[in-house]
Design goal:
The protein has 325 residues and is an alpha/beta fold. The chain has a single domain, classed as Aldolase class I (TIM Barrel), CATH 3.20.20.70. It contains 11 helices and 12 strands. A 12-stranded mixed beta sheet has the order 7-8-9-6-5-4-3-2-1-10-11-12. β5, α6 and β6 form a beta-alpha-beta unit. α1 packs parallel to α2, α2 packs parallel to α3 and α3 packs parallel to α5. The longest helix has 13 residues. It is globular. It starts with 10 loop residues before the first strand and ends with a helix. The protein binds S-adenosylmethionine and iron/sulfur cluster.
Amino acid sequence: MIDQWGRSVDYLRISITDRCNLRCKYCMPKNSVRFMPKEDLLTIDEIFRVAKLTSELGVKKIRITGGEPLVREGIIELIRDIKALENIEEVCMTTNGILLEENLERLISAGLDRVNISLDTLDETLFREITGGGDIKPVLRAVERCVEKGLKVKLNTVLMKNYNEKEILEFIKLTERYPIDVRFIEMMPIGAGKAFRSVTTDQAIALISEEFQLLHCESGNNNDGPACYYKTEKGLGKIGFISPMSHSFCRSCNRIRLTAEGFLKQCLHWKKGKNLETLMRHGISDEDLIKVIEECIYLKPYEHGFLENSLSSSSDKRNMFQIGG
Ligand code: SAM
Ligand code: SF4
């Protein structure tokens, strides 16, 4: 499906819950989150319906995210059913990894193709601090288990000044020890993230280049979107940089997002989109729903406006845990 700017949109990210078993400082700080009533979350059947219709419009890759997707009942069956859709080539998940090891066999059997694990630090104490009390051990075990099982893994690391910038080189060394990709992400001014200072991609590259020569490479996955990839000479995995703030990637944006309450979002930043939940709960037919989705995709805005417009009335006030990242 092509949008009004000529971009091919073939990637849907679905937040299947706004709940989470961690309380990351920049996402869901303790005592300040309010979850939506359970009945407002899309049901698993409603999520599947949207996934199926978007796949008929050309979506080939679906990512399951949240909140924490592994706290939502029915995720395994959802992944299995989405994976069985005719046009779907890849089903992926973004998770904090806490419940990953115990669900890994079932996820792989259901057809999960790859997993992104969010890990901002390798230090047990700092992990506890950033995540509001989380235990890093099951996450590290899950990373190892994925590698053993041959499931493709990427680590997502949001870089924050005065928190994890001193660990950047440790993450680079990980890509020389394991065949896993590490992606450094600039903090976006969304929700509690506004209070943090990001390390920019250029700053991170300068720091890494003092010790390693970074060789430019392709992602190896042509549906991979905004990351720019490198490798060290001895690297088994790649090093990616996602730079929404310093190097806008909107020109090649190929994605739409479905929030936990069923809002089809045209762009991470803007409020624009369509409330599919209301339409579905009022009995819209598949034929009409597909037209609504088609129009919504077509009207994707050209770019986000994080730098100029973060306070404007048309920017979205949702938090990242409601959108899914
Ligand atoms: N709970 C899962 C996890 O943490 O992987 C999935 C949902 S979480 C909202 C998805 C990603 O968004 C995580 O990698 C998290 O670090 C990232 N994130 C949250 N707030 C952010 C912000 N303000 N800027 C950049 N990334 C953010
Ligand atoms: Fe939960 Fe993910 Fe947000 Fe952390 S980043 S609080 S793990 S949703």
